[in-house]
Amino acid sequence: MVVASTNDPRVSHEVARGWAARWNSRFVSVWAQGHINGESGHGPWPQGWALLNELLEAAPQPNAEHPQSPDCANETVFAA
Predict the structure, then answer these.
(1) What pTM was estimated for this model as a whole?
(2) d(CA 34, CA 75)
(3) Nearest-5° angle of CA 12, CA 16, CA 21?
(4) pLDDT of the chain along its 80 residues, tens only?
(5) Residues 39, 45: contact at Cβ < 8 Å?
(6) Which of 3, 6, 34, 62 has the fewest CB neighbours in a 10 Å radius?
(7) Contact (Cβ atoms closer than 8 angstroms) between residue 28 and residue 1
(8) 11: part of which helix (H) or strand (E)?
(9) Burial, 55: exposed, middle or buried (Cβ in 10 Å; 0-12, 13-18, 19+)?
(10) Is residue 14 a contact partner of residue 8, using CB atoms and an 8 Å limit?
């Protein structure tokens, strides 16, 4: 999942959309939110928490034999 703002001073909306396409990831536009980080003054952000929970629910779960390993032996898993 790539979450992007239309007025982020560090990366354009189009570049972020291109990353999502290249990574075969869902693209989520949060419109004019500036740069999305804790230092931007967003305060509590329910939409951000909802997106994080959605991402976590979709992540591979550890299996019983290897609790530290995702249950996806033939897949590459990247940290979010």
Answers:
(1) 0.69
(2) 34
(3) 145
(4) 999 999 999 999 999 999 999 999 999 999 898 998 888 887 888 988 999 999 999 888 877 666 565 555 444 444 44
(5) no
(6) 62
(7) yes
(8) none
(9) middle
(10) no
CA–CA dist 64, 7 (Å, integer)? 44
Backbone angles phi, psi at 4, to 5 degrees: -140, 155
Count of all residues that appear for the chain in the document = 80
Q: What is the DSSP string of 5-47?
A: -TT-SSS-HHHHHHHHHHTT--EEE--S--S-SGGGT--S-HH
Q: Please enumerate in sequence order all residues whose Cβ is within 8 A of that of 44, keeping only pairs 6 or more positions apart, or say none.
A: none
State both tokens at 65: 């034999």
Instruction: Determine the 3-state secondary structure of 5 from DSSP.
Output: coil
Q: Shortest CA distance to 30 belongs to which of 10, 16, 41?
A: 16
